[in-house]
Task: structure prediction
Amino acid sequence: MRDMRIRQHPILTIPETKTADFSWNDRPLSGREGEMISSALIAAGVHIFGHHAKDGSPQGIFCANGQCSQCLVLADGRPAKACMTPLTAGMKVQSVEGLPRLPAQDAPLAPAPVASVVTDVLIIGGGPAGLSAAVELGRLGVRTLLIDDKDRLGGKLVLQTHKFFGSVEDSHAGTRGYEIGEILAAEIAGFPAVEVWLNTTAVAVFADGIVGCVRDGRYVVIRPARLMVASGAREKMLSFPGNTLPGVYGAGAFQTLVNRDLVKSSQRVLIVGGGNVGLIAGYHAIQAGIEVAALIEALPQVGGYKVHADKLARLGVPIFTRHTILCAAGGERVESATIAALDAKWNVVPGTEKRFAVDTVLIAVGLTEVNEFYLKAKQFGMEVFHAGDAQEIAEASAAMFAGKIEGLKIAKSLGAFAGEIPSEWDEKATVLKSKPGPVVRREPPAGEEGVFPVFHCTQEVPCNPCTSVCPQQAIRTENDTITGLPYFKDEVECTGCASCVAVCPGLAVTLVDYRKDPEHPVVVLPYEVWREKVELGRKVPVTDVEGAILGYYAVEKVKARKRHPGTLLVHLRVDRPVAKRAVGIWVQERAIDPLTVYEKAPPPDEAIVCRCERVAAGEIRAAIRAGVRDLNQLKALTRAGMGACGSKTCRPMIWRMFKEEGVDLGTVTDRVDRPLFVEVPIGVFAGIAEGPHD
Result:
């Protein structure tokens, strides 16, 4: 089997970890002690975790976040989600084939006492919103219990290797996401009033105000005076033939593998979705040494920040707007994917099909709130608050502000805070949630002497760390707002320190130095990918902001600032006409062209909507056309939503299908949610510990 470990990374440090020998279907393998089973398997080249009992379809990882049940395996004879179960030495892991069998020994077990905890505040979720709320509550001495189902705090921050937007003062702008998670975790560790439980999954909210949790395999009930839900978001799925093949990942699963677990999950990837999540995931793929065949977006333009799209274009990634995916194809896993252009009415344009040889299709078409706990607690009359993506899908910088605000609201409701929540917090949170502005044309500075920065950002987004790091305090934003485009004050002399180049999250600042040779000025470019590409003396392809190659120039110097060691400052001596236009270095020099032979895509009705029960789109459309307007009835007729995940993946797609069929959504009855939102072995509720070795 191939070793798919990432052995070097331009940003992340490769940790030293203890080896754990285990077996997969009786074949000996080695993994890392404590990593998730799914990561250990994929690192060993295993992508198929079993086959579905209904149709024999191959099953593999999809969300890597415990939200679906695609990655089910048997760990020491017990069913386990591979993405949420740590690997231990000697573990016997097996694929799930066919229907499970009841154990031969079925004698009753004696129930054990279930622990009960009372606290002032329970926070579900240790991401940016939950951590920020805990900081405010801890500062005020409010007894707070924060729980998270992962082995470390940070939530999605753990997966982010890029520098954040926003402001330095308010949201750690210019600092990488995983570092922000570490900063917030360290901050709450200093507050005695805040207790943290990791590896703890909230599974239910009950009418008597109790929240049920599973902590390290044991059931615990918590009775909070106040509940805060900061459980984040889950990824939306698309309906297309082949959408459940192993190798079709949600963007979060992909980032979990490459950034958290340092597993090179793919060789070549197609990205579907041009929001910030898809654009950033493409950048992370290249940092991990994975080729990006293309990124496609159904809208006429990418929905994420243009600076993120520009970074990909400068690295050699083709971006196709007004395109959709028709299908993914392969035997046991993805081997190719076919895309096509869309017309103004969202119909596929015949003859525009392109098929790429890829082993991964990364789906990044948006997120939906994980708000079941909040809605159920609200229904039961609990004192409940929510923040972050559980409240509204937005950037992590906005989630931090939302957490701060909700934290003080909770403290105020408990009488622990008598002041007023700063009004500017709401204003800043609103700004941080704002959509990117229109793209504008910017002319570069007119001068060609001395040294000065050139700003290549052409879209208003909430970001201004460059104004904080300039030692001359000479960088300002238009109208002095966080969303204004930056500029350098002409009357101030630049020192050429390149701090603004190093801090920019969008890698959209360069430095031009005419002082030694005006005809061949030195340009300083930010660079964060394969380091061997910028060795001293090597000629590299230099691009403009759109990715067009301006010429090949030799690397004269490579430096890094202590504060931003992952951002290399590459010095190149270029021709004068190129200097102000140079922005990046092309990495994917070999074009990844579409295959010449196009195989007709299967009909859309073959797409799977309910992954757990293998219910196809055609079955659901037939029911809708027959007059079904109740998701509970649809569930009874087709089994859609009846599976282990509890409709977390299929439900948004079913609602979309009602809309596509022209049904007034106001006439559709939603399914009835039960208090229990996560699959739990029934013995756990009786206080019996559940784990592979129990």
User: Anything to note?
Assistant: The mean pLDDT is 92. The chain has 15 helices and 36 strands. Residues 115-233+369-432 form a domain with the FAD/NAD(P)-binding domain fold (CATH 3.50.50.60). The CA atoms of residues 434 and 502 lie 25 Å apart.
